[in-house]
Write a structure and sequence with these properties.
84% of the residues lie in helices and 7% in strands.
Length: 149
Amino acid sequence: LSYNSNSIIMSDENFGKSMANAVDAEITAFRTLQEEIQKLRTDQQLLMQQQSENEMVKQELDLVDSSGGDGQVYKLVGPVLMKNELGDAKQTVEQRLELITGELKKVEKSIKEKEEKASEKAKKVQEMQSAMQKAAVEAAKAAAQQAAA
């Protein structure tokens, strides 16, 4: 029966490398999720800005409507201001607000899902790194015992 301590050390090194590669892959996936979340947050801010602007337009149209006068509403079409019916303008703004609200809900849902995935990835990376440290300590103990023997 022959015993070769080099083969044990080599297999530990291969295991360590494969585990390190797995951790690197998880970290890369985590970073990708973080980038996606950041992009979604940027989209969310843009949508919130558009929503705010359209809410202000709606308030202004309501003021024109409640004034009872013959308030004129104009729509910018390219470089030209075109006369627009108040009812049409209000309807357009309402539709825009509904669309923006729907998109905001989708983005918020995506952010929540991605944050949950990122949290799971972070936990998994932490567990894998802990396991690697534990394996390294065990390998060091085994090498020390072999050296002492």
